[in-house]
């Protein structure tokens, strides 16, 4: 029984070490809602509804987390947002 408890403790510890990064999109006065929505659909695999909701949050709150996950997955997505003229960063 102690072997099982030890394995469970190792598993829980390993899960705590895994970190989730986030892409945060920031508001600007340049890009249109349509451009932001289309870019989120393309770069972050959002549905039209998700992209629209994120664009509204960014507009009114100044920023919004648009994608979470492993850094290696987020880096190219964030680059696509930046290449499209949006303001974003991985935190």
TrEMBL record:
Residues 22-83 form the Adaptor protein ClpS core domain. GO terms for biological process: protein catabolic process; proteolysis. InterPro entries: ClpS_core (IPR003769), Ribosomal_bL12_C/ClpS-like (IPR014719). Keywords: Hydrolase, Protease. One of its GO terms (molecular function) is peptidase activity. It comes from the Bacteria. It holds the Pfam family ClpS. This is ATP-dependent Clp protease adaptor ClpS.
